[in-house]
Amino acid sequence: MTVTIVGAQLGDEGKGGIVDLYGEPADIVARYQGGDNAGHTVVHDDVEYKLSLVPSGVVRGKTGVLGNGCVVNPRTLFEEIDALQERGLDPDVRVARRAHIIFPYHRRLDGIEEEAKSEDDQEVGTTGRGIGPTYEDKAGRRGVRAGDLANPDILKERLEYAVPQKRALAEDVFGVEAGEAFDIEALYEEYREYGNRLEREGMLVNAGDFIASALDDGKKVVFEGAQGTIIDIDHGNYPYVTSSNPTAGGAATGTGISPGVVGGGEVIGIVKAYLSRVGSGPMPTELAGVEGDTPGYEGEAGEQEEELAEFIREEGGEYGTVTGRPRRVGYLDMPILRHATRASGFTGLAVNHVDTLAGLEELKICHSYTLDGDELQTVPATTEQWANCEPNYRRFDGWENIDWEAAASEGYDALPENARIYLDYVSDELDTPVYAVGVGPSREETIVVEHPFE
Length: 454
Ligand code: IMP
Description:
Elements: E1 2-7, H1 15-22, E2 28-31, E3 40-44, E4 47-51, E5 63-66, E6 71-72, H2 74-86, E7 92-96, E8 100-101, H3 104-118, H4 131-139, H5 146-149, H6 152-173, H7 184-200, E9 204-205, H8 207-216, E10 221-224, H9 249-253, H10 259-264, E11 266-272, E12 275-277, H11 303-316, E13 328-330, E14 332-333, H12 334-344, E15 348-352, E16 362-371, E17 374-376, H13 383-387, E18 390-397, H14 404-410, H15 417-430, E19 434-438, E20 446-448
Parallel strand pairs: 1-10, 1-11, 2-5, 2-10, 5-7, 6-8, 7-9, 11-15, 14-16, 15-19
Antiparallel strand pairs: 3-4, 12-13, 16-17, 16-18, 19-20
Inosinic acid binds at residues 11-12, 37-39, 124-127, 129, 131-132, 226-227, 231, 240, 242-243, 278-279.
């Protein structure tokens, strides 16, 4: 059986913690998209692990798979594996032969393009990890796949074709010095070594076959989505998106397991009890703003709004795991959640950070938008329209701080009544049950209503 974990909002919903919790009985945790732009924090035996590429389940001895839909930076991969080994773990990580490889020139081009776009305030605010340029090369049929690293002749041939184009792009189109990231010989030597290590350590797999045969043997598989629905390249607010499909369809195309199997399992939407966003793009329910990220924001919000944003940021630790940047924060947005629920077919919800909002007198949830006089229940298809949406709010009474760990062991009914009213509203609107409620960062601070593998 499979359980697919999908970010319902803009990433950073706390997927890592839920994968950790629900993945407990699983044998395999497979990522199906993205690369080292993700940031997963897992707390295990009071030790905090921050991973950006390796599936977080490996911390608990699961087999981690990077599916064909992922883009893999071997430098990051081996850095993370080596760091886990140094901390006494024995991570079992497999990489799809079909996964595409991120090279230093991809990272460089990511930065170069962001820089160029920033001249007209058009930058996406990427993580700078080379994600977009690598998927571009994949779609352009000039990429290098993990399996190619293990074949020196193919690796050489591919680099000799792609790198001169990339160099010309940097120098002739963007007018910057290309530098060592574009040195074919050096790249060949370094990446051939990665290929050797992948081969030597038996890490390369045909991900679809590998996972399917595990499922045939009755094993349990978690598909771990990174990022979130509104930064999905198809269903997100283009162009302020990542370059892959975090929505549930990505779990099928990004691993080689059929949509029927993915949809036949559980698909859990991970929701943060409010909203956060890294980088640029619209956010109708945003509170105050973050200079440089919020379009047009120059610190002009009201004092009350600034205070509330600051409160949520501090209480929720809303600073990027990968970049350390302060995140933009806002009220919970139901049109986003309706859109996400439709696109991925959630069978259950996990709502995180319910403790973060404790102590506020009143909360608001955006029930719908108004655009050009019409009421919308979901996110419009163009980013420009979305930017013009006015939220229609519902007000909710706030809840007090309680002993969250005690509540986590007692169950859902131990939550403050007003928190339950808030959660019941979300569940009713989405016609999807709440499976889990996060009330703190560790696994012990999650209220489990349903365990999808049980
Ligand atoms: P990229 O994935 O680095 O190309 O960045 C594209 C957009 O996705 C930017 O707005 C990033 O801030 C956002 N993004 C990428 N990864 C994450 C994540 O793990 N959490 C939140 N936002 C992300």
